[in-house]
Amino acid sequence: MTRILIVDDDPLVRAGLTMILAGTDDLQVVGEASDGVEVPAAVRTVHPDVVLMDIRMPQQDGLAATEALRRAPDAPEVIVLTTFDADEYVLRALRCGAGGFLLKDTAPAEIVRAIRAVAAGEPMLSPTVTRQLIAHVAETGVDARKAAAVRALAQLSPREREVAAAVGRGASNAEIGTELFMSVATVKAHVSRILTRLGLNNRVQLALLAHDAGG
């Protein structure tokens, strides 16, 4: 059973998500919070596997809450919630370690699928969505980000850099395997080692890093 904490300042949104997840056999809503400031105590109390995190909340927004939460050891996965697919805060949340994002008007079946994917450690963002988000990277600080990303990727072996570049293009594990003549299991092993070596939370952060470096 995957345990879910819902964080949103709108009680109707919380109720709707709870209703959707109540219809599944493997997902359980174990707690709710109405603001980012409530997240640490809620996580300590209910021990969720996945947190559905609203971005815009009155006291502490989801970005700050996500960043603080993902710095903690054994942190739950975070999926940010938004009403705008090009919201700059979504991209910032992904850089802070969120596993992906959901639009609040996403179909119920897709919400369930996304939560299951993130809980299983799989990327939630489709290649199309990954490319769309990367296209909205703010231009500020591009040179500094590129220099830092190039230094980080220099730690990798040539093969690992090839995998990282493919992740940066939004390729799935199966697509990377076909392109680089690897099994999907080998691709997953490479991605896992890359994340560990670079101190990243997930492949979304790796995709952003590879993009910053120039693909």
UniProtKB/TrEMBL annotation:
<dbReference type="InterPro" id="IPR058245">
    <property type="entry name" value="NreC/VraR/RcsB-like_REC"/>
</dbReference>
<feature type="domain" description="Response regulatory">
    <location>
        <begin position="3"/>
        <end position="119"/>
    </location>
</feature>
<dbReference type="InterPro" id="IPR001789">
    <property type="entry name" value="Sig_transdc_resp-reg_receiver"/>
</dbReference>
<dbReference type="InterPro" id="IPR039420">
    <property type="entry name" value="WalR-like"/>
</dbReference>
<dbReference type="Pfam" id="PF00196">
    <property type="entry name" value="GerE"/>
</dbReference>
<dbReference type="InterPro" id="IPR000792">
    <property type="entry name" value="Tscrpt_reg_LuxR_C"/>
</dbReference>
<keyword id="KW-0238">DNA-binding</keyword>
<dbReference type="GO" id="GO:0003677">
    <property type="term" value="F:DNA binding"/>
</dbReference>
<dbReference type="GO" id="GO:0000160">
    <property type="term" value="P:phosphorelay signal transduction system"/>
</dbReference>
<feature type="modified residue" description="4-aspartylphosphate">
    <location>
        <position position="54"/>
    </location>
</feature>
<dbReference type="GO" id="GO:0006355">
    <property type="term" value="P:regulation of DNA-templated transcription"/>
</dbReference>
<keyword id="KW-0805">Transcription regulation</keyword>
<feature type="domain" description="HTH luxR-type">
    <location>
        <begin position="149"/>
        <end position="214"/>
    </location>
</feature>
<keyword id="KW-0804">Transcription</keyword>
<dbReference type="InterPro" id="IPR011006">
    <property type="entry name" value="CheY-like_superfamily"/>
</dbReference>
<protein>
    <submittedName>
        <fullName>Response regulator transcription factor</fullName>
    </submittedName>
</protein>
<dbReference type="InterPro" id="IPR016032">
    <property type="entry name" value="Sig_transdc_resp-reg_C-effctor"/>
</dbReference>
<dbReference type="Pfam" id="PF00072">
    <property type="entry name" value="Response_reg"/>
</dbReference>
<keyword id="KW-0597">Phosphoprotein</keyword>
